[in-house]
Here is the input.
Amino acid sequence: LNREKSDILIVGGGIIGLMCAYYLVKEGKSVVIINKGNAQQACSHGNCGYQTTSRALPLNKPKLIMRSLKWMLQKDSPFYIRPQFDIRFISWMLTFAANAYKPKVIERSMLGRYNLLVSSKALYQELFEAEKIQCNWSPNGVLFVYKREKYFEEYKKKIELLQEIGLSPQPFAGTDLQKKEPALKKDIFGAWFYEVDASLKPDELISETQKLLKQKGVEFIDLCEVTAFNEEGSTIKSVVTDKGTFKADEIVIATGAWSTLLEKSLYLKIPIVPGKGYSITMKSPKISPKIPCIFEERKVVATPWNGSYRLGGTMEFAGYSTEMNQVRLQNLKNVTKEYLIDPYTDDVTEEWSGWRPMTNDGLPIIGKSPIHKNVTLACGHNMLGLSMAPGTGKLVAELILEKPTHLGASVYAITRFNQGL
Ligand SMILES: Cc1cc2nc3c(=O)[nH]c(=O)nc-3n(C[C@H](O)[C@H](O)[C@H](O)COP(=O)(O)OP(=O)(O)OC[C@H]3O[C@@H](n4cnc5c(N)ncnc54)[C@H](O)[C@@H]3O)c2cc1C
Here is the structure.
């Protein structure tokens, strides 16, 4: 295959690539999406489906660093680092830990995350109304649930920071909590309710968006891997794949956790590591929660949809290993048992794992490459790729078309990491 030129070539067909395509095609551009894996392999497929503005704070926290050392010895821990002598990973981890002690980095990340999350919530609403996408969209809030009073109270410290940017959850306890979410067990101490948060069914969002984009003329080249780039000066002239060479005026790199694997051919340092998570999808239990619940103490999430239901969580740093750790997978059910009256069913439709594209400061990488003038990066969305996708897509379109951006873009630039390999 040696293809005629398109305006835009997007590498990666996860939710980020799809949203970039949507906002570019809306501007009249011809778009081709190249995707190497099948739908299930993308992280966008089996995630928990939360659109959570409340997750503005990055993961880098001194407490988490200390607890993760303890968790390394625990088989069913929610956070695990496989001991590995990979210099890139060690350097990533050290920077991740150091960032937890840098208030300026945390503040930059919090504001950068918040702006993208707020913009994406509004854009999802707009998109679903304009394009009639059906994906179990429920903009009715999320509960952060605590079994123990101590941890419920501790969460207040986080709220103090979040209040500075205008996020205030409502507390529920006792009979008020039972009324709010009757599926919770009676011994649960309390929960914080973020009305601003929303949820949807990720695989439905993906398939509906693909259908919409095909109707709008976007071409999908599936099971095709980008392996190299041909350059002329500071411009990429063509993209080499295992199915031939493709030409485009502009290239978007939306390759999620795999982005690092392209860094040498792009002459960039892309500090993203895969953070594996698990999910189990099943038929809804009889007493299903109505509100999506995050069991914060145990880092497990339960998302109810119409007829189906997903438990998800864990963060495993084990390189690009595809092994499904059964202890961690089954632990999602064990944890849920502590919180819900009717925690799961045996009618399981999918057991899944995916790699979150983790940066060491919690911010995604969005913006033009400092090396090639026709390359734009849209990767590294950590635990929030679904939540940030429309805002990212719109920003990428604005940057490529050299339009004023709808939010400050410089904070996401790759130049925040020292460049040069
Ligand atoms: C258990 C779990 C729960 C989660 N829950 C949530 C949640 O509730 N809310 C939320 O916002 N986020 C959540 N996330 C995170 C979210 O899923 C990711 O941030 C998001 O899916 C990343 O999207 P992406 O498009 O960047 O990457 P992906 O969806 O992984 O897509 C990247 C695509 O690029 C393709 N690709 C890679 N390299 C190449 C190449 N060389 N050539 C061609 N194609 C290539 C791959 O095949 C893949 O299809 C969760 C993640 C996990 C694991």
